[in-house]
Design brief:
Helix content: 40-55%
Oligomer: single chain
Shape: globular
Number of strands: 10
Order of helices and strands: HHHEEHHEHEHEHEHEHEEE
Strand order of the largest sheet: 5-4-3-6-7-9-8-10
Distance between the termini: 25 Å
Largest sheet: 8 strands, mixed
Strand content: 15-25%
Structural class: alpha/beta
């Protein structure tokens, strides 16, 4: 049912999505034309994608502990690393858009809710060694592989937090004065998504950027996305179908954009 729903919503998105010619907001126009739309390549992309290919060829299996909504395509606790890499990791185009966003906004404290095998984490951590990525993962065996991948890259600005996000997120947020960038890619259900949003919102500021994964994944996720858009502290949202961007810029009028990606 969710696959049919997502397909229908994607067709609707394709009909309604606009490009830069419809943008009158200078902030969104610059963001779209210089960061979101251009397929700019950076040296690290090839290296991370080579890691993706090696994981897709892996013969390893792991026992997955899943606290979230699970996968549409993967079932069972014992899963092949190759299947996770091929079906559950963020595709290169979307992960590279996250890299460009981090590279553009230069956030110091980045939260990633859902590490998986760590490919997206590497994209978030690579723009600058001065930022700190705190990545949360519920499955110990999945996180272990991600940590191996971080070690291969020699990246030191990633902190991992293992355990149920419902417990680990509030504990970690208590230790932080603020959050500059959050990528929500954990439990793809309405209630957890809204809960994580409100928790992180307490540590957000005017220049914080929230990015939500799979906002049209299901009716529940779409309901959560619509509620987030309507929140009084949210001023600008950008719907890229696969990703939803949220900004809190108080000097901007409240606007919602659906843009081609």
């Amino acid at each position: 049912m969710d696959k049919v729903f997502s397909l229908f919503r994607y067709l609707y998105y394709l009909i309604n999505a606009k490009d830069e010619h419809s943008l009158h907001s200078p902030f969104v126009y610059t963001l779209y034309t210089e960061v979101i739309s251009p397929p700019n390549q950076y040296y690290i992309f090839q290296k991370i994608e080579a890691l993706r290919e090696s994981l897709k060829a892996s013969g390893r299996t792991i026992c997955v502990k899943d606290f979230g909504a699970g996968s549409k395509s993967l079932t069972g606790k014992i899963r092949k690393v190759s299947d996770i890499a091929a079906r559950s990791e963020k595709p290169a185009r979307q992960a590279q858009a996250l890299f460009r966003l981090v590279n553009y906004f230069k956030p110091q404290t980045i939260l990633e809710l859902g590490t998986s095998l760590g490919l997206t984490t590497l994209y978030l951590a690579s723009p600058s060694s001065k930022n700190k990525v705190i990545s949360f993962e519920g499955c110990p065996e999945t996180l272990s592989i991600a940590q191996e991948n971080f070690a291969k890259f020699g990246i030191k600005n990633i902190e991992t937090v293992e355990g149920n996000l419902d417990e680990t997120l509030p504990q970690k947020l208590k230790q932080l004065n603020k959050v500059d960038f959050v990528f929500f890619d954990a439990n793809h259900r309405y209630a957890p998504t809204i809960s994580y949003f409100h928790q992180c919102l307490k540590k957000a500021h005017e220049d914080s950027v929230f990015v939500f994964d799979d906002i049209h994944w299901s009716k529940e996720m779409e309901m959560a996305w619509n509620e987030i858009k309507a929140h009084p502290e949210v001023m600008i949202t950008i719907d890229l179908f696969f990703l939803g961007l949220v900004f809190f810029r108080k000097k901007q009028p409240k606007q919602h954009f659906v843009l081609k990606f």
